Every structure is written in C-alpha cells, then in structure tokens.
C-alpha cells in the first residue's frame, strides 16, 4: 500500500507538477489553503506526510502544521519556504515539530529524497506505536488502541451524522479450559477465537482483545441491527471451531451489543450497555 501525502500550496502549477511526478510512488492529495487541507485531513483518510508552504492564504504554514500536529500527531510534517532564515526554522520546529525543510525553488530530486526520509520516519513511528497498541498473544489491537480509536470514530460519526456500534464478546467456560487442559491450551483457544473473529468482521471494523477472555469490536457506520447480524455470524463460526488439542470441547461465545447515539455517547457508556447485554445472553444460554 502506497503512503498518502498531502501537499498544501496556493501555487496550482506547483501542485500539478508534484502530482505528475509523484503519483506513481504515493497517493497524492492537494489543497490550496489551510482550511481545505484540514478538511481533507479530517475526512478520515490517514496521511503519512503533510507538505505545506510557509506562506498561504488566510493562514501561515506554521499555524497549519501546528493544528495538524495537535490533531494528527503521527503524520510527518514538512515545510516549504522561500525564506531560509533561522527564526522561521526554529519557530516551525518549536511550534509544529517540523521534520524537514525544503527551500523554494527546489528540484524534484530534492523533494523525492525528503519524502523518502519522511516516509521511513513515519513507518518507524508506526512500528513503535503498534508494539504498544497490540496484544502479543493474539496479534490483535489492545484496549489502549481501541479506546483511542473510539474517540476518533466518535468525532467522525458526530460530524457526519452517522452511526457507530459496539460488540462486546466473552468466551464461555474459559476457566474450564484452563483448569482441564492448562494455560497453554487457554492461550491456544484465545488465538483461535481471535482468528475466527478477525475472519468474521467487516474490513472496516476494528477488533481488539480487551482483556482476559474478552474482545471488543467497533463497527463504523453501523447500527444495532448490523451489530446483531455480526454477532449471529460470530456465534455460528465459533460453534464450528475445532481445536485438535481439545477435541472433546464444544466452544461458544456470549455477545452483547450497543450503538451510538441511543445507548450512550462515551466509550464507557457503550461498553457498559454492551456488557450488560452480553451477560444476559450468557445467563440465557
């Protein structure tokens, strides 16, 4: 997958030239001013790098890059400037943590080198973040990641007047597996359930191991009915699960659902409601 790069400059000829030269290497988006650029960043697409001119209509590049840093801290920032003074450089570094500068006029080779370095830095940061945001046993996202992503998805749902659903899942009789077969078997079951869940959800859904034998699924642009239908497929797929080391076990999973906005607005409110419904499902079955 190619990195997405946003170029912000009021020089339309420059933007067209950049698109021609780099569209094979990157997914390029362009904006003529800061307001347009922020709308693009907030559209939900994840950009690896933002390249902005120091001078632009209605806003200077430092202010724009500072705002983009506050809202999208993982995006690498590059500034274009026709002014090579140290004061501008220090201000940009202090206020918006600019990764690199490129003085106008520049040639394509210089920009290519800077973009390659910025892309490598973005992927290095992403690897560090992923190590802290994934569960080492299952390879799924962890609780920290899902809580961070919920805030982003909630803001997007509010802005677009769309829905957001949560599915809370708990493996049935997990303690029995650990008691009968040992904790290594429990780990094997967790990994198998994680793989089953990952193979059942939509490509746009976010799945995490929330803790112990609990999993959470965030469903963007989905209502409670979508969550119920997904839950039915999960129950069916888990019941068909066969693990060689535990062939005499029948596996099942209990699930509860909730949705924004009717069941709450915060992550905690939706999880509490989904957890209650999950418990009711477990008691009834």
TrEMBL record:
Task: Please name the GO terms of the biological process aspect recorded for this protein, alphabetically.
Answer: phosphorelay signal transduction system
Which transformation does this protein catalyse, written as a reaction? 2 GTP = 3',3'-c-di-GMP + 2 diphosphate
Span of domain Response regulatory: 4-119
One Pfam family recorded for the sequence: GGDEF
Q: List UniProt keywords, sorted A-Z.
A: Phosphoprotein
Q: Which InterPro entries match?
A: CheY-like_superfamily, Diguanylate_Cyclase, GGDEF_dom, Nucleotide_cyclase, Rev_trsase/Diguanyl_cyclase, Sig_transdc_resp-reg_receiver
Q: Which GO molecular-function terms appear in the entry? A: diguanylate cyclase activity
Q: What class of enzyme is it?
A: transferase
Q: Which residues carry this modification: 4-aspartylphosphate?
A: 53
Q: Where are the transmembrane segments?
A: none
**Methyltransferase found in the keyword field:** no
* Ranges for domain GGDEF: 162-285
Do the record's keywords include Phosphoprotein? Answer: yes
E.C. designation(s): 2.7.7.65
Mind telling me which NCBIfam families this protein's record contains?
A: GGDEF
Name listed for the protein in its UniProt record: diguanylate cyclase
| Organism listed in the record | Salinispira pacifica
């Amino acid at each position: 997958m190619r990195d997405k790069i946003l170029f912000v400059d009021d020089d339309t000829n420059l933007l067209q030239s950049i698109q021609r030269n780099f569209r094979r290497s990157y997914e390029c988006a362009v904006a003529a001013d800061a307001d347009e650029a922020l709308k693009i960043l907030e559209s939900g697409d994840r950009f690896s790098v933002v390249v902005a001119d120091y001078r632009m209509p209605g806003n200077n590049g430092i202010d724009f890059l500072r705002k983009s840093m506050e809202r999208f801290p993982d995006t690498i920032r590059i500034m274009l400037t026709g002014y090579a003074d140290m004061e501008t450089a220090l201000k940009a570094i202090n206020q918006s943590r600019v990764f690199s500068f490129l003085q106008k006029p520049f040639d394509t080779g210089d920009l290519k080198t800077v973009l390659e370095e910025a892309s490598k830095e973005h992927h290095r940061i992403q690897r560090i973040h992923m190590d802290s945001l994934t569960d080492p046993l299952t390879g799924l996202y962890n609780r920290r990641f899902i809580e961070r992503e919920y805030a982003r998805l909630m803001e997007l749902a509010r802005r677009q007047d769309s829905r957001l659903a949560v599915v809370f899942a708990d493996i049935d009789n997990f303690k029995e597996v650990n008691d009968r077969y040992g904790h290594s078997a429990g780990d094997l079951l967790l990994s198998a359930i994680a793989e089953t869940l990952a193979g059942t959800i939509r490509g746009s859904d976010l799945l995490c191991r929330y803790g112990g034998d609990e999993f959470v699924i965030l469903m963007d642009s989905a209502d409670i009915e979508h969550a119920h239908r997904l839950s039915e497929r999960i129950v069916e797929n888990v019941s068909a699960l066969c693990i060689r080391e535990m062939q005499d076990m029948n596996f099942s999973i209990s699930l509860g659902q909730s949705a924004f906005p009717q069941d709450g607005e915060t992550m905690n409110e939706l999880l509490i409601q989904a957890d209650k419904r999950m418990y009711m499902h477990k008691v009834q079955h």
